[in-house]
Fold this protein.
Amino acid sequence: MLRGDEKNRLAAVNTGVTAADYYPVFLTDPGPDFILGSFDNQTLVVYAQQPATLGRDQYLLTNPAGLRELNEVLTATAATHQRYAEIRASFTAEKSFGPTNPGNSEWVNDPGVVGSLYSDPNSLIHATGHPFVDRAFLGKIQAEFPAPRGWGGWRLTSTLNYLDGLPFARELLVTGLPQGPFLVDTTLRGSPEGGNRAQYVLNWNQRVSRDIRLPFGRLELTADLSNLLNSANKIVESDLSGPQFDLRPAVAVLPPRTLRLGLRWHF
């Protein structure tokens, strides 16, 4: 079990243009189906910048009060070793929660990244959520089966991995305000608090290997079959509000089934 409470995080606060230089604007978010008047519409409050303050941004690198990140992890493992089998299994439940920069990527949602958080009031809308790499639940089973010596020293290794989907917030393009167009998070990042997660990942990898003793060293032969199930899980899904959002278009998928042959000489 692990718990970490990261306090006094760094952020660049805009001291040249403060919250007092913005005024609220109410707009209708059409929701995931992108149809005005449907049940999933919501009212969003965004902030328009006073035109006279445009270009006056100045930033102070500091430790804003209350900026912290909570991390909790529980990991359980079990293993057994038999004459012709060695099996290991592990399960992890994790939760990270706190404010990060707006957007959905590892480059902005890492709590250690100093970005656009606190640059303006819009950057704080639904800023608190799960960071991009918070998988929630992970599982792994690995089994190794060495063949008897009389069979030539072959070894079979199999690994099965499960990962929950990457969290993200649905984003809406806001236009018509003095500061120009920008994206705003319409939900927090991740579930079950109301945000979204991409599709889970289930990956099965297989290896067959053999060691051959030589007068000068050892020869290792390997054959790796990756993504044995040839699944096309959507690792990253489109986060932009629009008519296609409910279809969850894929931005990145698992690589297809791949065979890799290896030869290594240890001397």
User: Anything to note?
Assistant: The radius of gyration is 25 Å. Residues 2-266 form one domain. The chain is about 0% helix and 50% strand.
